[in-house]
Amino acid sequence: MTSSATTPDRLRSGSAETLGRIARDNAWTLSLFGLLAALLVFTKLINSHYGLTSLQFTATAVVPLALAAVAQAVIVISGGIDLSVSSQMALTSCVAATLMANYPGDGTAVVIVLLALALGLLLGAINGALVVLTKVPDIIITLSTYFVWAGFALLVRPAPGGKAAGWLMGLAVGSLGTSLLPKAAVVVVVIVAAIWIPLGRSRLGLSIFAVGSNRLAAFRCGVPVNRTKFLSYVIGGLLAAFAGLSLTASTGIGTPVPEPTYVLISIAAVVLGGVSLAGGVGGVVGPLVAVVVLQLIRDDMTFLQVDPNYGLVAQGLILIGVLMVGSFIQIRRSRA
Amino acid sequence: MTATTSLLLEATDVSKTYGAVVALDHASLSVRPGEVHALMGANGAGKSTFVKILTGAVMPDSGRISVRGRERTSHSPADARRNGLVSVYQEPAIIPDLNIRDNLRLTQTPIEPVRHWLHELGLESLDLSSLARRLPLATLRIVDLARALALEPEVLLLDEITAALPANLTDRVLDVVGRQRGGDRSVIFISHRLIEIGAICARATVLRNGQMVGVVDVTAGSEDRIVELMLGEVAAVRGRHEQPAAAAATRSEQAPRISARNLSDDRRLRDATFDLFPGEVLGVVALEGQGQDELFAILSGAKRPASGSLLIDGRPVTLRHPADAIRKGVVFVAADRAEALLMQRSVRENISLPFSARIPQWGWINLGREGQRVDEAVETLQIDARAGSEVRRLSGGNQQKVTIARWVAAGVRTMLCFDPTRGIDIGTKSQIYVLLRDLAAAGAAILLYTSELGEVQLVCDRVIVIFGGEVVGELPAAGADEVALLRAAHNLRPDADLPEQRVAGAPAETFAIEAPVGEAAEGVGRP
Fold first, then answer.
1. Rounded distance between C-alpha atoms, residue A97 and residue A109, angstroms
2. What is the Cα Rg of chain B in Å?
3. Which residue in B22, B330, B353 has the most chain A C-beta atoms within 10 A of its own C-beta, making it the best mutation to test that interface?
């Protein structure tokens, strides 16, 4: 699902060679999985009670962040950035929770979920249209819309509240069949795969990478640069709406005040996940794993009873350390 | 090698590997004082790595570098500068958002010597307070060179300094570099143009696959020897290809693929009128800034003309976006690979990018069929795709082949090539020439702007000359030797002498010197 898997390179076809190349091209993602495994072992060592149930809690806790990170990844790959992702989540979450409180029923909840997703598409479309039409840098536009969506969220729900349909809340907790498979993780993978795999095989997917990688080259190859940027924000908006719904699902209510750290963590996860902030490089598997890594680091701080303030400092330092090692490896690799 | 002290620069046993790739394998280079020394090699032979090591941009794995007999280690370009080694890279090391004076201040270069060298190089009227990004690339390269000369290095390294220069500036540069002979300073000169090597270099060190394969004294007949060393096994000297088939004979019976009628952009391009026929390679020759960039931008759909009309296959068209041009089968190959490629993406993606434009926006890419087309294109162009997962890891020649391959895969009908062989090794150049001829033979129409006048007779059927934004002449390839082209490019009548002071003295912004109306009219008569 990462960049090279979406575009299998069949220039050489020896299977061992192919495997080697896939490993090389996805070295970053593979090392992240390694880091994740090491962290799980470490977590088990410092907290012998950490088991499959705890893993499910972790999975449930990361769902909104994971979806936000993927939303961010798509936009960053196209060369943009979205600072409004957390208030998009707050707004869609509040709208969904309020509607579900006013119009109860499992059937209507399905309609409400669809409405919330449509709202996400609309918010993304507004972000994208503003970026493309005004030519104001993405970071300014989305910083402004962050406040706009947050304001709307408070208008919809002056205080936390509302309701979530039972089946929606059920999606976020527990496991699927075997307890090894947290339901929340499955839901995230299904949503992301349903969007990312078709995208990777379509013209739009390649265009998103192309525009992020080299706008001029893409333009000269006949890629509609503006439309592609616009659509990357629309896809980002859709994923942010899923993230907002997952907030409602896990808390059962809508909270109008967006959590600013969601934006920062989504960007941190994107970078840690191997997506270049300059655009054009990366995938969605890396950011997904990175979100779990970041969450486990936070959990471990709690288990170790680190003073939360020092915990924040430590988190930042760990992030810098990991990125330094990572970029060192990448520099070595790019020279090879 | 015997008398170490008599050498100004001596690099011995320099090796560098990048992972499994051996970039330099015990390569050596020795330069005498006052010598202009050519460093030659096909793309990927290790020239760039050698230059980067000499100028401290890259640390070698092993090897020694001595300047005037004293061993030196350079950890950075600033270090190398203190050791007396200064390089002018292919990309001007100039900050675009600063003016020229601030750029000079940034490198602590004294202004007066720079002025002196700018004068020598034919840019005496350059306004040092002009913003770098507003100046043409050719001017920036000259400024970069003047700055390097002003630093009075012991060894000056020039990497493809003439690659992007128009003929008049090239002459001035060669003149100035040639005059360094016999002085204290030595010059290491990298160029793919053998004529330039022959004109100013005393000796040439030839690299192949990272190894030093020979040092040649440059004399009248040494070009063949150098080419032989560079190409190795493929020693077949790539001479002139057979004269292009007599496409002209059939041309009159066919409808032109592209007809440009009085195209103008209100700035540089004033009145371009010409026809491009299927089955021909039409050359375009012009001095820097005569409107050729604008012409190609208009033809490829990247820019709208201010006036005039454009007909494709006999029908008037309005191109709003390159996608419109591509849909009509008109594609563009740029000189600068950085403007054409997705450097961090794979060969496959780079080739697919416009190809997928031929399927509906929302459709699924047929990976099987697409893969087949890509493979065919890679094979047709003999692209070495071993490092294919990231195009930036390919050599310059292979990169350029990728930009052409993407259009071959898409089934090209009309190709607009803007200096496609700039900075590319001889072997790849020949392959591109052959490819362009093959495409034309298969019925494609090819418009080829070239800054290398010798290419015209190698590839083109005929050539048009642009001066002051107008097409001022047309020559058949047979009559388009370099002298004739140079005259035509300066808008001189065939019998007039080339003036001593060419247009090189004109200020940078106005390379497009105002053509006296009368002279333009009597120029190399319109077709």
1. 10
2. 23
3. B353
Residues A288 and A152: their CA atoms lie apart, in Å, by 29
Q: What is the pLDDT of residue B493?
A: 58
Q: Are residues B295 and B442 in the same domain?
A: yes
Q: Which residues pair with B158 in a beta bridge?
A: B88, B189
Beta bridge partners of A175: A182
Domain boundary among B355, B382, B411: B411
CA distance A89 to A114: 15
Both structure tokens of B495: 């019998």
Q: pLDDT category, A320, cuts 50, 70, 90? A: confident
Residues B395 and B507 in one domain: no
CB-based contact B342 A10, cutoff 8 Å: no
Pairing of strands B36-40, B186-190: parallel
Report CB contact under 8 Å: B344, A203: no
Chain A positions touching B415 (Cβ under 8 A) are: none
Q: Supply the pTM of this predicted model.
A: 0.72
B86 is in which domain, residue-wise? 4-234
Q: Looking at beta carbons, which residues of chain A come within 8 Å of B323?
A: 222-224
Q: What is the residue whose two structure tokens read 């570099």?
A: B177
Same domain, B213 and B286: no
Count of A–B CB contacts within 8 Å? 120
Q: Which residue of A11, A24, A223 is in closest CB contact with B347?
A: A11
Structure tokens at B285: 């020759």
Interface test with A, best of B337, B342, B351, B367 (most A CBs within 10 A): B342
Q: Which of A302-311, B197-206, B368-377, B506-515 has the highest mean pLDDT?
A: B197-206
Q: Are B213 and B156 found together in one domain?
A: yes
Query: Quick check: B327 and A222 CB within 8 A?
Result: yes
Tens digit of pLDDT for each residue in B58-67?
899 999 999 9
Chain-centre distance of CA A180, in angstroms?
A: 23
Least CA distance to A221: which residue of chain B? B354
3-state helix, strand, coil in chain A (%, to 5): 75, 0, 20
Three-state DSSP state, B472: strand
Considering the domain architecture, whether residues B162 and B173 belong to the same structural domain is answered as yes
Chain A: closest CA distance from residue B50 (Å)? 15
CATH number at residue B286: 3.40.50.300
Contact B18 A336 (CB under 8 A): yes
The Cα A99–Cα A115 span in angstroms is 10
pLDDT digits (tens, 9 = 90+) for B334-363: 988 888 898 888 888 888 888 554 444 445
Q: Are B213 and B26 in contact (CB under 8 A)?
A: no
ipTM of the complex: 0.77
- Pair B424, B402: CB distance under 8 Å: no
The DSSP 8-state label assigned to residue B282 in this structure reads: E
DSSP state of B510: G
Q: How far apart are CA B304 and CA B265, in angstroms?
A: 8
CA angle A190, A192, A198 (to 5 degrees): 100
Sheet of strand B330-333: strand arrangement: B330-333, B414-418, B445-449, B281-285, B462-467, B470-476
**Residues B299 and B218 placed together within one structural domain of the fold:** no
Q: Look at strands B315-316 and B330-333 and give their pairing.
A: unpaired
Q: Is B337 part of a structural domain of the chain?
A: no
**Listed residue (A193, A210, A230) closest to A2, CA to CA:** A193
B379 touches B409 (CB < 8 A): no
The model's pLDDT over A22-70, given as tens digits with 9 standing for 90+, comes to 777 777 888 889 999 999 999 989 888 888 888 888 888 899 999 999 9
Inside any domain, residue B339: no
Of A8, A10, A217, the CB nearest to B339: A217
Q: With beta carbons under 8 A apart, name residues in chain A contacting B343.
A: 213-214
Q: How far, in Å, are B13, B191, B221 from residue B224 at the CA level?
A: 27, 16, 7
| B354–A222 C-beta distance less than 8 A | yes
